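Issue: copy button drops trailing tokens. Both records pasted manually instead:
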Amino acid sequence: MGWKLPVAAVQMRAIGDLAANLGVVRELVGKAAADGAQLVVLPECFSFLGRAEGDKFAAAETLDGRGPVLGALREAATKHGTWIIGGGTPETVPGDPKRTYNTLVVVDPRGELVARYRKIHLFDVDIPGGAVLRESDATAAGDEAVVVDIAGVKVGLSICYDLRFPELYRTLVKDKGAEVVVIPAAFTAHTGAAHWHVLMRARAIEDQVWIVAAAQWGKHNDKRESYGHSLVVDPWGTIVGELAEGDGVVAATLDGDIVAKRRAQMPVLRHAVLW
């Protein structure tokens, strides 16, 4: 028998208020745990989402365990006995007061920080008919693809705009052995309506993995609106859970036997001759 992993993708609408956002996180993690989730995935910007890139310094911390963001996740993980992935929060960059990393953190049920992933691809885009966003103005890029063992399952880590770069996911899966990939996001409403579902399903299909995509939703302020539609997608590209809008959780039990079945039926990873 293969592995099984009950998961929950949290959907929320973060604002420029750290304390308020962490209150929502505590509530929704509690709900997910009550529903049986062994792994809870929070969206990108779960701790803070302001009007301008520089506003996030209000939530930046070193992630050494003494700050309020990591402290809240550690407390919730130990309280509920769950793994928690904080899908993207500002981490201070040593020696660089003008930028932070956009960092995903993995906290185990003992409250220990066991892995972190610093977002590699930064969102510098003029959205057609929408806002101009320059993540790199106040964010430093990471440079390492990360896979972490969660309850015996290899889970690949990524954030939002990474979704558009399939080579990252092929690295996580073919080179590092991931069978699940998390893609926490704050996808804009405009680009989400055009590309969110098709890209999520494509990453699942081409790499034959489970996808857990926790999303921001709704209007955060007068400049930012997120698409929502938190998803869980299976290795055949089937959407097995979705929340279009509103705060809440998408729950599903991921099954390793399905990964093995799809990879046996169509062994594309073995046939990938240009990798």
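Record 2 (pasted manually too):
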Amino acid sequence: MFWSSIGRLRLAAATALLATTPAFAQSTGQVTGVVKDSTGAVVPGATVTVTGADGAKHEASTSPDGSYTVSGLPPGNYSVSAAHYGFRTVLQPSQAVAAGGTLTVDFTLQTNLSEEITVTAMKREDVARKVPFSLTATSEETLRVRGATNIEDVAANVGGFSVQNLGPGQSQVAMRGVSSGQIARDQPGVKEQVGVYLDESLISMSLFTPDLDLFDMNRVEVLRGPQGTLFGAGSESGTVRYITNQPKLGTTQWFGELDGSTIQHGNQAGSVKFGFNVPLGEIAALRASAYYNALGGYIDSPGIKTTADGSIQPDPTTTQNNVNTGKRFGGRIAVKLAPIDRLTITPRFLYQKTQMDGWNRIDDYNILANPFTTTRPAVTLGDRELFIQIREPYTDKWYLGDLNINYDFGEVELTSITSYNVRDILVVRDAGALTSSITGGSIGQPERVYSLNAPLYDATGGGDPAVPNRKPATTFTQELRLSGTQDPFRWVLGGFYAHQTRDYGQNLPVTGFTAISGIPSHSPIDTLAPPDSLFFSELSYKLDQFAVFGEGAVALSDQWDFIAGLRYYHFSEDKKQLFAGIFGEGPNGEVVSQPGNTKADGVAPRFILSYKIADTTKINAQVSKGFRLGGINDPLNFSLCTPQDRDTFGGHTNWNDETVWNYELGAKSKFLGGKASVDVSVFYMDIHDLQASVTAGTCSSRVIFNVPKARSLGVDLQFEVAPTRNFDFTFSGSYDDAKSQSTLTSTAPDGTVSIVSGIRSGARLPSVPIFKFAAAATFQWEVRAGYLAYVTAVNQFVGYRYTQFGDEDLGTLNIPAFGANTPGAPYTASVFTYNPKMPAYDIVNARIGVKQEKWDFSLYGNNLTDERAFLALDRERGTLARIGYLTNQPRTFGASLRVNF
């Protein structure tokens, strides 16, 4: 009886389960459809994303016939989007999926233009074509296909944006021709003219703007013209923003990249990169990426030999090959937390280390290695050669931690961004040319003394053997803002605080100098300089900045929009300076102490008026102000200066804030049925108190002079056309006519008036070309269902430019510069001629590849014409000790594989 009852219960349970199975199967629905292009051809491999009201995402890829199905969807409202490389992402708004029902959503994709990329240039999301000022947003994939791997390459693809290469990890960033000239390593107090951000975190550092790896970037935004209203100091003439891919909830993704290349005239390079995105339950996700780049070298140096008396000389019979190899490695990790629908919390940590073994420099004339010497081995350096007695390593360790908190109240969003930056930088240069011009040329010591090894340590942080525990540079920032995103009035209101500290020092140890020469390396009252250190400095900076800002955009009518914004800022800077060693001491052998402080406040307004001619065309007029904070000059190296140079360059303790008023008229338009676009801006920038960086004659010092008036006028142009899914063409170019409108003069004791460092009315502003453009074309075709082959070619043109004010007056050097005391004198020539103007150049890159949904394999060639470009003039002690040029990487061939699962 008992067992028969159990059997009846089992039978009843099975019957009930069978009866409910159809109801369970019918409790979910599905979305299905077909994805085609504008010609009606199906698009295989497109990614279709179905997003529920709770934020949960479901993805599928279209099959070879363009169809897709996303099943297992609980009943509810869903938005559906379709995306594919080369097309605009299309989003269908929320639609209902019923239990057991099928929702059909078909897509027609239009060819993509960069103007359709979503950007956050105004601290809110918008497509690029709707932003009412000049900007370029380039995706990471586009940059990679064009051969871009660093900020210098990014600039080469964008009009109105210039990056002057000043050595490993060192660059001068400028926009729209607003540039004050080459910044040197021993000018740590100089501020930026272009702000650089990683997402919302400020990362720019004058001269040492981080050279970020572009792996797992979403895009790079280049905002032209003053952005100080929203982005503050450092964004005087523009802003660059690296935008990373953020963690995605409910998505598992693995991606990686392998690359290998060989450099003509050099050695090999390669990289390994890997990343992933994983959900951490339903309310969190983690995204991480890591990379390792082996950087190839292409600069050689003659060997060295030691003579019987201990002198060091070049050995032309031997060669040190590829002295500028290096590596860059690091990674990022971010976690996104969404405990409730309205709140997201995203902490992130980044680490990157760059190590270079030497400089990308060509020596045209070196006082220790040239073809004119008769008492030292004559050396004729090759097209990609310099002369060094010791290696010149560069190390940059960068740590960044930030926290982004966003809360959506509905019509208002609250955003908090907290960041903490740490930079530890060591630059070592072979200062043998500089030192020998003093110990041999000026003091008259013999070869055994002037040829001693002379490493110059430039340290922001540790690495200097005399001060191994110097603290690294730190920057803490906090921004808090509210924003309203609802039409017809959108606004942002916020506050910003920054605290920066930087301890910096130089040390020039010439081991054996005192023992061999009998000359003390420092005076008896100089207790700061270590033994045999001919120059030693300790500098400490502390800068605090506070600002409040606001901007509002109102739709006056269907056609007219008006934007007004204002930023109030206050900053203060304190600086401590100590200089020692026989090259840095005062006139009585004392340690030079020159503390200082400076402070300023001001406002930076912006006004934009937009008129919509049609849905596809808008005209924008803008008036805006940018600013660059002032600072405190270093004292001159008194013992090295001539009396005239002391009079000319001395006494300039501080420099003032630099300001720019920008007047701009621009237009953005789409045509050819949305398959082409143009973005053009005409601007005039009125510059006040330009902070000109100049070399202080024979003093081996650099100072900042304020040039009262300067201006830059020009045109930015970007044109894109994608007539079919198979072909697209992009042109980005600029014309920048930037000149000084003031003349700086100096009066000598005898009454002679001279122009200071070539700063005269009508002189070109340095480091930026007048003409610059990049043109890129891609042709792609389907070789089989789901497989695309593509060919991309890029031509980058950079016009001629000068490195510093006064370079237009250079070009000849009387040799031997120090008469009979010159190392290697007598010479076989009396004049050395060189070109102080950096000639115009073209770089041509190309790539051919095949890709499908999960991988992309390509072969590429960069600098196909093997152009040897001169990027900047590099000099020591004016031009008396060395004249050289920073140069680019020669012709390079490689292969790349990218995977995505």
